[in-house]
Amino acid sequence: MEVGKVNSGVQPPLPPRSVDSSPALQVYEIDLQTFPSLNRVKWTCVALNENQAFKMATERIRKNGERMRVANIVFVRELPERRSYEISFDGLLMKWWKDNRGRISNFVLIVGFTVIGSFSTFAYILKWILRGVFGLLSLISEAFLGTLRLVLIRNRPRERKKVVTVAPGSRLLSIADFLCSPISLELTFRPIVRDLRSEYLAALALKRRWKAKWIRVRYLYSFIAAMGLNKLFSLLKEFRSVGR
Amino acid sequence: MSKLKSQFETMGFSQSNLPRLSRKEEFVLATLINSGRELFGLELVEASGGELKRGTVYVTLQRMEEKGFIDSRREARPAPEIGIPLRLYKPTGFGERVFQAYQSRQHLGLKAVPV
Q1: Interface predicted TM-score (ipTM)
Q2: What DSSP state is assigned to residue B79?
Q3: CA B31: distance to chain centroid?
Q4: Which of A61, A167, A202, B19 has the highest Cβ tally under 10 A?
Q5: Do residue A218 and residue B85 have CB atoms under 8 angstroms apart?
């Protein structure tokens, strides 16, 4: 092995290694001696250390099938340490801007921004136009569907509402039942309520709702008058019986 | 005049025992006698032309029934019908005689006493 000869040459002291786990790359200049002419050929390579540089040189000789040997390995310089960057898109953009700031003219910038702004404005207008068109379409469709629904509902057989109400005059009868004698109830108040119901139902049959309401009010007055008269006559009757 | 007085006495009334008949009661009796059939309260109100009111007619009818001038009955109704039946009124013989006596008295100019 000719390694010993290689190392016997004068070499500058190696620079201190970086503390970084990734070793720094170094540039080596290798003297190659050809056979049988014994000429010297210089070859430069980048390797982590001398051994790797020697291996790289012998590998090159073997691949090329040349008749030569490594005469000397000279350290030239150390490459700057590799740095890893986490570059974001903004960072790249800024880097691109810094790198190309001088090349881009203001005119190009203005045109670019105008195009972008126009596009956004156009998109905004288009959005509202589409909204209007679709809104109109939805209105038309709703109106059509609403009409259709109305037609369907009108043509549908109607379901009668089950309304349970108290017959008019029922409360009046209960009041009279509470306040008056059974004879008065039978002879005075029940006929009044009977007339109320007959007139009320007759008005409803003619679809005169307000007339029916007015009949209820009028019979309420009649009921109160009858009640007052009934009580007055009972009182007078009582006075007479006491007087006799 | 003497003929009317004799008619008044043949009815069994004198000036002292003639029952008192108010104007409304007289009107009710007249309507019932002239109709010749049983009437109910609302018919009497409609026939009165405003003389009788809906609120007072039944009180009047009750008083007249208590005095014996008129008689009432419930209308017979078929079985499925429900609700308050009509009450039909007709004059009694006493009521008719009192009415006739009052008619004669008006001609004689006599006054009635309360019963």
Answers
A1: 0.81
A2: T
A3: 8
A4: B19
A5: no
